[in-house]
Design goal:
Layout (H helix, E strand, L loop, with lengths): L11 E4 L2 E4 L10 H5 L3 E2 L2 E4 L2 E2 L2 H14 L8 H14 L4 E10 L13 E9 L6 H6 L1 E10 L16 H12 L4 E6 L4 E4 L3 E6 L2 E5 L8 H12 L4 E4 L11 E6 L3 E8 L2 E2 L4 H19 L1
Parallel strand pairs: 8-9, 8-15, 12-13
Antiparallel strand pairs: 1-2, 1-7, 3-6, 4-5, 4-6, 6-7, 9-10, 11-12, 11-14, 14-15, 15-16
Helix pairs in contact: 2-3
Length: 294
C-alpha cells in the first residue's frame, strides 16, 4: 500500500486537550514510555464517519493506564468528544482511530514516578487489515515460537505497548515465511490468540474460544460472542490445546482491525470458510453497516 509516512500528512491530531496540526504532534526522545513500554493505546474502526463501540474503547484506555499505575487527565466522555472531533476534522469516513496515552520526559530510570501523563487521538483513512483475497479464502497462519506470558508476569488486561513486542516479532517472522499471521500459545502451552486478534474455532457445530486469562478480551471478541448467542450458536469459552485444533471444521479471528476474518490454513492443515464463520461475518458486517446509515 503506497501512502505518505504517518508523520507526514495533512490534518489535525488531538493532543493533551487541543487540536494541533498533524506534523506538529511530537514528543521528546527521553519520553519515559518510549524507553520502558508503558504507553497504552486503542484501535477503533470508523464506519460512515462513526466510531464503532467508541465508549468501550475510551473506557478501556483509562483502565489500561490505571493497570499500569497512572491516571489520565481526561474522562471517557472527554475522550469520546475528542475522537469524534478528530474524525470529523480529518473527514474520515472509513478508517481507523488510534488513541494513545504515555508518560512524559520528566524523569529517566525504571521508576515512572514524577512523569506527566499525555494523551493523543489520531484518525485517518485505512482499508481492511487483511486483503480481500485472504478474507475470502482464509488466512494462512503458523504457530509462533513466542508465547503469551502468565498473568503473574504481565498486566494482560491492559492494552499496553510493551505487551506487543512478541506480537510484532511473531507477525514479522510469519510474514517473512509467507504466512499472513501467527497463532500464539500461552506460557502453559494452551492456545491463546493471534498477534493482534482473538481466536475462534468451530467444532461439532459449537463455537469454541480460549478463556482470556493472559491476553486481551477484545471488544470485537465480546461483540461476536454476543452475535453468536443471539443466533443460538452454542458458545464454549475454555482452555484449548494445540492438539485439538485438528478437530475443528472452521476457524476465524476477530479484532477491530481484523473484524471477522476466516482462517484457511494453520501449520499446513487446511480449513474451510464454513457456515458458522460466514454467518458471523455477515452479522458483524450488518452490525457495523448500521453506523453508516445513521
Amino acid at each position: 500500500m503506497n501512502q505518505a509516512s504517518l508523520d507526514d500528512r495533512d490534518g489535525v491530531i488531538w493532543l493533551d486537550g487541543k487540536l494541533v496540526p498533524w506534523r506538529e504532534a511530537k514528543l521528546h526522545v527521553l519520553t519515559h514510555s518510549l524507553h520502558y513500554g508503558n504507553a497504552v493505546f486503542e484501535g477503533e474502526r470508523v464506519y460512515g464517519g462513526h466510531v464503532f463501540k467508541i465508549n468501550e474503547h475510551s473506557t478501556r484506555l483509562l483502565r489500561s493506564a490505571e493497570l499500569l499505575g497512572y491516571q489520565l487527565p481526561f474522562s471517557a466522555e472527554e475522550l469520546n468528544r475528542a475522537t469524534r472531533e478528530v474524525v470529523a476534522r480529518n473527514n474520515v469516513q472509513t478508517g481507523y482511530v488510534r488513541p494513545i496515552a504515555w508518560r512524559g520526559s520528566e524523569v529517566i530510570g525504571v521508576s515512572a514516578r514524577g512523569t506527566k501523563p499525555h494523551v493523543a487521538v489520531t484518525a485517518f483513512p485505512w482499508p481492511s487489515y487483511f486483503s480481500e483475497e485472504a478474507r475470502k479464502k482464509g488466512l494462512r497462519l503458523k504457530t509462533a515460537a513466542w508465547r503469551r506470558p502468565g498473568p503473574q508476569s504481565a498486566p494482560a488486561e491492559a492494552k499496553a505497548a510493551g505487551m506487543y513486542i512478541i506480537c510484532t516479532m511473531s507477525r514479522d517472522q510469519a510474514n517473512a515465511e509467507g504466512y499472513d499471521d501467527a497463532l500464539m500459545l500461552d506460557w502453559r502451552g494452551q492456545v491463546a490468540e493471534a498477534t493482534g486478534a482473538n481466536f475462534f474455532m468451530v467444532s461439532g457445530g459449537e463455537l469454541h474460544t480460549p478463556t482470556p486469562d493472559c491476553f486481551l478480551d477484545g471488544i470485537t471478541r465480546q461483540t461476536v460472542l454476543d452475535l453468536a448467542r443471539k443466533r443460538d450458536i452454542r458458545v464454549v469459552e475454555r482452555a484449548m490445546f494445540p492438539e485439538e485444533l485438528g478437530e475443528a471444521s472452521e476457524m476465524f479471528l476477530t479484532g477491530t482491525a481484523a473484524e471477522v476474518t476466516p482462517i484457511g490454513e494453520l501449520d499446513g492443515r487446511k480449513y474451510t470458510v464454513g457456515p458458522v464463520t460466514q454467518e458471523l461475518m455477515a452479522a458483524y458486517s450488518q452490525l457495523v453497516s448500521g453506523l453508516v446509515r445513521t
